[in-house]
């Protein structure tokens, strides 16, 4: 076939979608269109008709920008109906693309979630189950397959797999990272406590140590745009911007400090009595007086969930600015229309929900995340996509979007076709497996396995003398009324338990990773706060019942 652009007299430009569409008609035997293309370059009406009918696709794979925000709750966006936070640039992705309303992580902890995003695997398979151990060098990261498909790739930001590791990793041609948690500011100003794995030794830029000069969110964005400007314009690109923000200790940019100082905490912290009445597990009630509890958060005597939440929201504002800068660069450089832009959180965060702070649990505030995807001409704008998706699905989805080969072993699956067709029913998943493995460093949270994403959430604790959990999210979205002992739900609990084990067996999750001790332990409780919770009442009997 003669290239479409050669059919237009005097044209030496690359094929446009218009010309490709007309060439398609010529190849199908339409001599009239062959005649008109030789004489009338302005064939846009034909092209628009075909594009509207979904008959044409870009001849080259799209670029991909993937922005990951640390600890970003699913409801902390303007587009999610938040009462005061301002996120116009992130919201614009939902307006011009899709907002995935049922997006979850399969482990709500930084390193395991990030490993699941890169590998498409559950934590029990990639075996990164804490924030101190690196990824197995034999595992394949999906950017490696993008490289094989002709993409140039860059990683900018927080790696955080392997403690102090920030060395360039496989799958990335360009590398900018920092050790552990890094720091918001190189001089540490604005923080109120020293976070474990905080580092002040700057950035690793392609193997060389470079000083950090400014606020980390802004600086990472500078590096990202610098790479975009210097990339090979003849190749598609994959840019992974992995923000430190909004990990605690939350430090907003100076320009945003105090923006929400007078705003109330839109989250209810239940009382001890409410937690008892709701039959929450003993470990949950005990955790409220711990490093990850609302009473003794981070073992600070004067910890305030309200103050921390305001700083958290203020810190998100610079991330929104970053997204705005990236979108503006794409627009100004004619890249927007052939770029898939993804914004996601690596896990949620609790601010008094269930009397807890931090993440790690299977509750909605911890496991559910924002996920927004824009791809002009591919993903219909303004859709609310309600299929159940997980972080394990990111790699398969982006590889399909790029027409790159699938990973050799993956637990997730692609939702790209369903998303581009605005048909959630094409992505057939009813429930998702959740898992968290007990960490010696933070003994407040036990090993948990759960069935999440449906109306009923079933949570099974492992290695702990305590009750399990069942919640009806339709009637109890706050997950405060544990139905695990309700006779009317006995059959449902049995079915969900069987489903949990089916998922574990099918994915090879019936053996738990065991890794050597690393890092500092934080087992502390405050003697002046709530006392140890009693054993569940149903555990007390005067004689044996049953077998």
UniProtKB/TrEMBL annotation:
Keywords: Glycoprotein, Hydrolase, Signal. Pfam families: Sulfatase. Residues 62-402 form the Sulfatase N-terminal domain. It comes from the Bacteria. InterPro entries: Alkaline_phosphatase_core_sf, Sulfatase_CS, Sulfatase_N. The keyword Repeat does not apply. The keyword Glycoprotein applies. Belongs to the sulfatase family. PANTHER family: N-ACETYLGLUCOSAMINE-6-SULFATASE FAMILY MEMBER, SD21168P. This is N-acetylglucosamine-6-O-sulfatase. The lineage of its organism: Bacteria, Pseudomonadati, Planctomycetota, Planctomycetia, Pirellulales.
């Amino acid at each position: 076939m003669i290239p479409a652009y050669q059919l237009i007299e005097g044209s030496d430009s690359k094929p446009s979608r218009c010309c490709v569409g007309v060439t398609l008609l010529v190849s199908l035997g339409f001599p009239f269109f062959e005649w008109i293309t030789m004489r009338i370059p302005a064939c846009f009406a034909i092209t628009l008709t075909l594009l509207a009918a979904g008959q044409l696709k870009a001849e080259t794979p799209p670029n991909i920008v993937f922005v990951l925000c640390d600890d970003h709750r699913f409801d902390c966006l303007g587009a999610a109906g938040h009462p005061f936070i301002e996120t116009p640039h992130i919201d614009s992705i939902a307006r011009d693309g899709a907002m995935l309303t049922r997006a979850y992580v399969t482990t709500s902890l930084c390193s395991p979630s990030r490993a699941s995003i890169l590998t498409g695997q559950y934590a029990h398979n990639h075996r990164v189950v804490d924030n101190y151990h690196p990824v197995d060098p034999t595992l394949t990261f999906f950017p490696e397959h993008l490289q094989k498909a002709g993409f140039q790739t860059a990683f900018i930001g927080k790696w955080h797999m392997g403690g102090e590791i920030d060395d360039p990793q496989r799958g990335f041609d360009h590398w900018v990272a920092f050790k552990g948690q890094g720091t918001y500011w190189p001089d540490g100003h604005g923080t109120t406590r020293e976070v474990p794995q905080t580092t002040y030794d700057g950035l690793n830029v392609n193997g060389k140590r470079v000083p950090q000069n400014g606020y980390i969110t802004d600086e990472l964005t500078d590096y990202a745009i610098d790479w975009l400007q210097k990339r090979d314009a003849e190749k598609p690109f994959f840019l992974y911007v992995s923000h430190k923000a909004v990990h605690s200790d939350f430090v907003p940019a100076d320009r945003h400090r105090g923006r929400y100082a007078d705003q109330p905490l839109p989250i209810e912290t239940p009382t001890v009595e409410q937690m008892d009445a709701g039959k929450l597990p003993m470990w949950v009630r005990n955790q409220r007086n711990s490093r990850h509890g609302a009473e003794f958060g981070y073992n600070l005597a004067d910890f305030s969930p309200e103050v921390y939440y305001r700083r958290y929201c203020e810190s998100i504002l610079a991330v929104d600015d970053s997204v705005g800068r990236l979108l503006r660069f794409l627009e100004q450089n004619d890249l927007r229309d052939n770029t898939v832009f993804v914004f996601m959180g690596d896990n949620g965060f609790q601010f008094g929900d269930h009397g807890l702070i931090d993440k790690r649990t299977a509750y909605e505030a911890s496991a559910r995340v924002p996920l927004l995807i824009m791809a002009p001409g591919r993903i219909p704008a303004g859709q609310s996509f309600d299929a159940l998706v997980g972080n394990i699905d990111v790699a398969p989805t982006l590889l399909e979007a790029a027409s790159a080969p699938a990973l050799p072993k993956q637990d997730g699956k692609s939702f790209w076709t369903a998303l581009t067709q605005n048909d959630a029913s094409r992505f057939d998943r009813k429930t998702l497996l959740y898992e968290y493995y007990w960490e010696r460093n933070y003994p407040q949270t036990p090993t948990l396995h759960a069935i999440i994403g449906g109306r009923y959430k079933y949570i099974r604790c492992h290695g702990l003398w305590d009750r399990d959990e069942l919640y009806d999210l339709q009637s109890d979205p706050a997950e405060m009324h544990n139905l695990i002992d309700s006779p009317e739900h006995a059959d449902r609990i049995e079915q969900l338990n069987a489903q949990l084990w089916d998922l574990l067996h099918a994915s090879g999750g019936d053996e738990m990773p065991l890794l050597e001790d690393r890092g500092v332990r934080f087992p502390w409780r405050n003697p002046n706060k709530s006392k140890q919770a009693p054993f569940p009442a149903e555990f007390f009997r005067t004689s044996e019942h049953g077998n």
